[in-house]
Amino acid sequence: MKKSILLYIVLATVITIQTPIYGKTIYNLETDSFDNKQKLTKLNDWMRTDYIGNGVTKGRGIPGMWNYAFSQIPVEGKIYVSSKSGSKYIKTVSVNNKIDTAFYNDSESQMLILPPGSSRADQVIEKSDEYALYTPGGEMTNKVTGINTDGSAELTIEATTGGVFLELTRLLDNNDLPENNSLDTNFTFKGVKSALDVSLGLYLNHNTGGGAYSAMPKAYYYTTTDTTVDMSNYIAPNKTSLYLKQDNVNILVGDAWDPSLYFKSATDRDGKSLSYNQLTNINDKVDTSKPGTYQVFYQNGISSEEGSVERILTVTVLPKLTLIVPTSNDFGSYKLGTATPILPWNHNNSIWVENNSNDGWNLTASLSGGTDGLENYVMNSGRLLKDNNLIAHSVSSGKINISDDWSVNKGLYIDYSNAKELRKDKAVLSWSLTPSTKGISE
C-alpha cells in the first residue's frame, strides 16, 4: 500500500532588531545621509582634525581624545618591554575613555556645528559627551593595529565594553646596554573611531534653547581617521640591569664574607639606580669555616617575570696553608762497608707547600713507630732530624716544591756512616705545617 503525504514548506526570513543597551542610535558622520549634511560635514571635519580644543577642553576630536585616553599611567601599570625582537606582551588596561561635556552651551565658539548668522536660527550642539575608544552600550568599538615611528614595535588596541586590551610585539632588537634600552612610543593607527553623544539645541540671536530637530536626533555620532598616539604612559622599555665587580672570587678559610662587596651597580625597570639593599634577593650560602666552592645568586626583579636579571658569583674558599706529601718514600739500600753510606730523598716524591695567605709558615717533621735506633740515621740538612725538625719555612705566598733542591747533606736523607751491622729500617714520618709568627708584611 502506498500513501502520499502533502508537505507544506514555508520559508520565512527572521529579522532581528538589535537595540543598544542604552537605547542610542549611532551614526557615521561621513557616510550617513541627513537633511543638513553640510552641518554634519563640518562636525566630521572637526572630529577628524581637532586636537587641543583651543585650550577649552581636555581633548577634542579623535586625535585629542585618543591622546587624552592614554595620557595617564594606568592603575594596572605599564607594559615594560625587553630589548629582544619577538617579545610579545598582552595586558588589560584602564583608559580615560570619556570626556564629560566636550561641548557646553556657555562656549559658543566651541559648540556650533556651523556658525549661524546673527539674526537667524540654526542648530547647535548644546551639550555633548565624547567617547574615545568605545561607547557604554557597545555601539562603537575599536580594534586597530599601529606601528611606532621607527618601525621597531607593533601595537594592537582592542576596545570594547569588556575592557581595553593591548598587545605589543617588539619587531627589532635593541642592542644597547639594558640600562640604556629604548623604545619609540609614538604609534600611528589607521581608521580609529571616536564618538559624540549629542544633545541638540536651537541657536537664535546668540542664545541657545532646548529645541531638537528630527533631522539630527539625539544619538551617538562617530567618524574615523588616522592618528598618532603617545603611548609613553602605557609602554616603556625595560631598563632592569645588574652588574657585579667580578664573576669569581677566592677567599681564605676564616675570612669575613660580605656579598655586598662584589656588587657593582643596578637599575630598576625605569632606569633608576638601585643600591645593594634594594635588590630583590640575594641567595648566599658561603661557609668560610671550611674549604669549598659556592655560588652566590644576586637577583634584580621578580624571577618569574620577563626582564628580571640574575648574576652568579662563584666563591672559592681556600685553605690558608696546604701541604702535599707522598704516602711513602723509599730511600733505597746501602751495602755496608762501601763508600756511599748516604741515601738521599727520592726526587720523584715531591713535597709541596701552598700558601694562600699573607702569613709565613713552618714545616716540621718527626719519626714515630720506627725500627729501633733509626732516629740515629735520619738526617735533616746535616743534623739529626730529632735535633733539627724544621724542614722548611717561608714568608712567601704561592706554591713551593720543598724537596726540589734536596741532595746529599741537604734536606731529609739517611746517613749510615756509623752503621756497624745490617739493618732493615721502616718508620712513619709525620709532618706539621703551621703559620709562623712572621708575616709577609713584616
TrEMBL record:
Entries under Gene3D superfamilies matching the protein: Immunoglobulins
Superkingdom of origin: Bacteria
Ig-like domain segment(s): 251-310
Pfam families in the record: Big_3 (PF07523)
InterPro entries attached to this UniProt entry: Ig-like_bact, Ig-like_fold
Protein name (Swiss-Prot/TrEMBL): Ig-like domain-containing protein
Species of origin: Lactococcus garvieae TRF1
